[in-house]
Amino acid sequence: MRLNELDTQAFLWLNSHHNESFDKIMAFVSGKNEWIPLYVLIIGSIIWKYRQQAIGILLSIIMSVVISDRICSGILKPLVQRLRPCHESAIQQLVHVVGDCGGQFGFCSSHAANSFTLATSLFLLFGKQIPSLKYFYLWAIIVSYSRIYVGVHYPLDVLTGAGIGVLAAIFCNIVYNKYKHFSFSK
C-alpha cells in the first residue's frame, strides 16, 4: 500500500470520529485569532522578566515562526500542490468539514509548523528554568490534530509541519545562543 493511501485512510478514520460538541471545540482550537491572548501573554511575560534580553529572545521566536511558516506556505504548498482532503474529489463526500475548507493546497500544515515552532522555541529558551513548558507540546499536538478533525489536513501534512516547526526552532535557537551576548540596548 502506498504512503498516500495510508495517509488517506488514517485521515478518514481520524476525521470520522466527531460530534457536535467537539466540532465547536476543534473549530476554536483550529482558529488563528483565538490564540492571540496567549501570544500577548507570552510576549508580555518575556518582556517583563527578561527586559533588555527580550528583544533577542522575541526575535528568535518570531524568526523561527516566520521560517517555518514560509517553508510550509511559501515553498511546500505551491511546490507539492497536494489538495486538502476537503478539496479532494475522490473523498470529498466522506470528509467531515468544520468551518471553511481553506486554500486549495494543504501540504504541509502551517498551523502544525507554527505551534510546534512556538512550543520548541519556548522549551529550548526557558525549559530548564520552567520545566512545565513541555506542556506546550500538548497544546501543539491538540492544535495539529484539530486540523485533521476539521477536515483540512492529512496526518502527513501535520507531521511534516510539526517536524519543520521543530527544526526551525532549533535552528533559530542555535543562532540566538551564538549571538545573544550582543546588546540591543546601545
Automatic annotation (TrEMBL):
Acetylation recorded as keyword: no
Positions of the Phosphatidic acid phosphatase type 2/haloperoxidase domain: 57-173
SUPFAM superfamilies registered for this protein in UniProt: Acid phosphatase/Vanadium-dependent haloperoxidase (SSF48317)
Keywords: Membrane, Transmembrane, Transmembrane helix
Keyword Membrane belongs to the record: yes
Segments passing through the bilayer: 158-176
The protein's name in its UniProt record: Undecaprenyl-diphosphatase
Species this protein is from: Arcicella aurantiaca
